[in-house]
Design brief:
The chain has a single domain, classed as ABC transporter involved in vitamin B12 uptake, BtuC, CATH 1.10.3470. A two-stranded antiparallel sheet has the order 1-4. It has a two-stranded antiparallel ribbon with strand order 2-3. With 298 residues, it is mainly alpha-helical. The longest helix has 32 residues. Helix 6 packs across helix 7. Helices cover 73% and strands 4% of the residues.
Length: 298
């Protein structure tokens, strides 16, 4: 059993990790909602963002706030470039072709990072403003653990406002419903899809910054497991549903942290919990927790 202090510590850690998963999962679900594409390169874009921060601060000695802003912008542009070069030419091809292209972009970015940055793990720069430890009674919390849920909530609200209240969001919703009808209504498909990739990749950049400060290690393969888990979170919540991605991310974060806290002997199987939960939920509700049944064109 957990005493009250340890319980509060565990719940705070779980909320922080779940919020990180949720933030990255939104990028997956946005792209799928508009393009019906699983962007398997999302984890590698996340990885590139971590390297940009490392070299921006360590090599070019830029202030952290300049580096963070530059990282988010470059990451967003990288995602948009991937859509333009690898996905747009295959938009009218069979689904399997664009899926293979997404996997190809993922491996290309991973190997490119290995060639450029090397395979040796690096340590992510630590910013005292975020990484200092706060003491609340007998609870010790990294300040970042409190910042991450707030950032995720603010970005989620901003994204929901964009989707529900702006012309761009209306165009995204129209394209997600029917390509052809949206095009006939005068919606610029290329622009709408590019904006979707831009926003989704920017969120991956924000997630990478906070992930790096929390877990510190950087390598060309660092995006693989977070990418897979955030994809699982998006599917668990109902892929294509923004609120569902957040719910799925929070659920996986809580399950991982709480089970390890209750059963320390299972800590070696921590990564397996996400897959087990996904299988159990999909057996009961194949569309995910908040997903709706849709008919896809083949």
């Amino acid at each position: 059993m957990l005493d009250l202090t340890r319980l509060l510590q565990t719940l705070t850690d779980a909320l922080s990790l779940g919020s990180l998963y949720a933030l990255i999962a939104i990028g997956y679900t946005m792209v799928y909602g508009v393009l019906r594409l699983i962007n398997f390169a999302h984890g590698e874009i996340f990885m590139i963002a971590m390297y940009i921060v490392f070299y921006g601060i360590s090599l070019f000695t830029l202030p952290w706030y300049v580096t963070f802003a530059l990282t988010i912008l470059v990451t967003a542009l990288l995602g948009t470039l991937a859509e333009r070069l690898a996905y747009r030419p295959l938009r009218n091809a069979p689904r399997i072709s664009i899926l293979v292209s997404a996997i190809g972009v993922s491996y290309f970015l991973q190997n490119l990072a290995t060639v450029i940055f090397g395979g040796r793990p690096l340590n992510f720069p630590q910013i005292p403003l975020f990484t200092d430890v706060l003491t609340i009674g007998e609870i010790y919390l990294q300040r970042l653990s409190l910042i991450v849920p707030i950032v995720t909530a603010v970005l989620l609200l901003a994204l929901l406002f964009l989707i529900k209240r702006t012309r761009t969001g209306m165009a995204m919703r129209a394209v997600s419903r029917d390509y052809d009808a949206a095009s006939l209504m005068g919606i610029d498909l290329n622009r709408t899809i590019a904006i979707t990739f831009f926003i989704g990749s920017a969120l991956a950049g924000v997630g990478a910054i906070m992930w790096g400060m929390k877990y510190t290690r950087i390598s060309p393969t660092i995006g693989s497991m977070p990418g897979i888990k955030c994809f699982i979170a998006a599917v668990l919540g109902g892929i294509g549903n923004t609120a569902g991605a957040v719910l799925g991310g929070l659920l996986i974060g809580f399950i991982e942290i709480v089970i390890v806290a209750l059963f320390p002997a299972l800590s070696g199987y921590r990564d397996a919990f996400a897959f087990i939960v996904l299988i159990l939920v999909l057996l009961v509700k194949p569309t995910g927790l908040l997903g709706e049944k849709t008919t896809e064109k083949v």
